[in-house]
Structure prediction request, 128 residues.
Amino acid sequence: QLQLVVSGGGLVQPGGSLRLSCAASGATSDYLAIAWFRQAPGKEREGVSCIAGGGSGGSTNYADSVKGRFTISRDNAKNTVYLQMNSLKPEDTAVYYCAAPPFVCTPSTIQGLGMTNWGQGTQVTVSS
Prediction:
């Protein structure tokens, strides 16, 4: 059974940085593709970033709202995907989730599907 364990959330000042980790275990396939999503109170879930699986060349995609500030990366030896978040803004405040396929991951669309595998959420709060 696939498990996704998220860590790294917390409280940070505007302009600060956090790094989220998503550790996968129990999967039968090699080096899963992983996506990051977030959801603020009263708002719909938003795709943030995604990275291709280990056999796909490591391509990445980002939502326009985080381009230039967030970086997704993968450590295959640890089966872990990271989301480095820099220059954080109050509008980045949300619960952040990582997810395993199936999901849509293109340069224009990062979107969950009905059978998407979700990790637990972690709260990121950027104080004002």
Remarks:
- The chain is about 0% helix and 50% strand.
- The chain has a mean pLDDT of 92.
- The CA atoms of residues 18 and 67 lie 15 Å apart.
